[in-house]
Amino acid sequence: MSSIKARLMKPTGLEFHETAYKIDQEIWNFLRHEYKNKSKTEDGSLPVRYWQTHAVPLHEECWRLISEITYANSIYPIDQQELDDRKHHQQNAINCCENIFQMIRLTANEIPSINLDKLTVALELIDKECKLLRAWKQSSKIMAHKNKSDPSDG
């Protein structure tokens, strides 16, 4: 791929939101399907008693991810304090991705009948989101460096 094409294909700020929403949608659809199956038959993967202890907290963590991204994206840093605040929320979003992954892993360990193959798309999206968020946070560091060395600041 040419460097121009690669540069033009860089993710936009909106891609963070889109990926976070897709993660939530994939996980929520999986959990609802598994819950529905289990509540009707014994073949399903998610026992009813785990709905409040696993499914709801996982869904809430997805929404926390979306909230952290939204808040960090709303900060346009013009000084070090705002930059630190933005980086704090970016790190919180990265932590949310890692928490979601760990929650899925915990659920799979506690409920062995869950078929993780059905969550492949969600797990790939989580990995993609972590990479996007880390790159975004890295670019904020670059912005901080540029802000410090800007000769127009006087």
Provide structural commentary.
The chain is mainly alpha-helical. The protein has one domain (14-147). The chain has helices at residues 3-8, 13-40, 51-74, 80-110, 120-149. The radius of gyration is 19 Å and the shape is elongated. The chain starts with a helix and ends in a 5-residue tail after the last helix. The mean pLDDT is 80.
The major sheet is characterized as: none
Morphology: elongated
Low-pLDDT segments:
none
Span of the ends, CA to CA: 41 Å
Approximate helicity band: over 70%
Strand content: under 5%
Please indicate the count of domains.
Answer: 1
- Mean pLDDT, rounded to whole units? 80
Number of helices: 5
Q: Give the SSE order as H and E letters.
A: HHHHH
The value of Rg in angstroms is 19 Å
Count of β-strands: 0
User: What structural category do the secondary elements indicate?
Assistant: mainly alpha
